From TrEMBL:
Identification of the protein by name: Uncharacterized protein
Organism from which the protein derives: Psilocybe cubensis (Psychedelic mushroom)
Residue segments, region Disordered: 42-78
Source superkingdom: Eukaryota
Compositional bias annotation for Polar residues: 46-62
């Protein structure tokens, strides 16, 4: 029973020692110092929050992580990751249309397909508020 546990661990330890002893002729301290200098020179990588909106739109929103910002994004090619457009910017471009008196309509936008997930909405403008309806 002891042999089943001890022998594989002992073999792994020997393999690690032999790899470390034979793989490098230069001291490891110099390579570690060089990598720290490279990271310090490069600085943190920041990405644009959305292709049509450069910054975060909320004070508590985390910025978009850059490549190498953590173990999750260590080997991620960020140019192949989805970069959705900012809904705030798209809504700001779509005007609210006044229809009759104090009612406004957002038609949900024009879709190229026959099936659209955006539902037409009618907004009541009883208050003195003319802005952008976030659900529109």
């Amino acid at each position: 029973m002891l042999g089943r546990r001890a022998l594989p661990r002992f073999n792994n330890a020997l393999k690690t020692l032999s790899r470390n002893a034979s793989s490098s002729t230069t001291p490891a301290v110099k390579s570690a110092e060089a990598s720290v200098k490279k990271v310090a020179e490069a600085g943190p990588v920041t990405l644009q929050q959305a292709p049509n909106y450069p910054t975060t739109w909320s004070t508590n929103q985390a910025p978009r992580p850059g490549p190498g910002s953590g173990p999750r994004f260590e080997q991620t090619a960020m140019e192949f990751q989805p970069a959705p457009l900012s809904a705030m910017e798209l809504i700001a471009k779509e005007p609210i249309r006044l229809v009759q008196g104090r009612k406004a309509v957002c038609d949900g936008g024009v879709s190229s397909s026959s099936f659209s997930l955006r539902v037409p909405m009618s907004l009541s403008m009883d208050r003195n508020w003319l802005g952008i309806e976030p659900a529109c």
